[in-house]
Design a protein that fits this description.
Blueprint lengths: L5 H60 L3 H17 L4 H16 L3 H14 L3 H17 L3 H8 L7 H15 L3 H14 L7 H13 L1
Helix pairs in contact: 1-2, 1-3, 2-3, 3-4, 4-5, 5-6, 5-7, 6-7, 7-8, 8-9
Length: 213
Amino acid sequence: MTYETEEEQVEKIKELWKQHGVPLLTGVVIALAGVFGWQGWTNYQDNQAAAASELYQAMLEAVLADNGTEDRAQGAELAEQLRDEYSGTRYAQFAALMQARLAVEAGDLASAEGLLNEIVADADDPVLEAVARQRLARVLAAQERTEEGLEVLGEEASGALLASQQEIRGDLLLALGREDEARSAYQAALAALEDHQARPQLQLKLDDLAEEA
């Protein structure tokens, strides 16, 4: 076996560097740029989420303070700011839900409909989409577009949202005079509840239909 001298090893390293040094260095630089770029993007995302969270909390405090129209107006402004400055966050969609609620309370059903349609179209969270669909169904029904409201409700919801979805379905069917279907929807809503006493108004709706049957 032949052993290379230290000088020979150094000469080989120099030769390899001449042949491959620049491409190798370029690869290292690109790799490091990717690492630091990803870290920078992650930090940016974290900072965005934190700032959006603070703004969302301020919006909730303004709306829930309920000290008059001034606080609610401030809440609406903060919601709009959230959607403008942090459109890529989940908080922006939560803010749109709040804007829709405020619009309904102000009697502006058209604006509420537009906001809720945006959430349904863009939501990447099935729970958020289901909530928006349920609220949109009620907004459409309030505009005497009950059939559209039924279509918007979509497929059967899962989990905790099933009871509210079926109750809304029952309300819309009842408004259309389809009492048998409404009764079935109310029964499905009641069956989806773990505690039937939690929604006494639901049992009353079912009882009213039973009396008319």
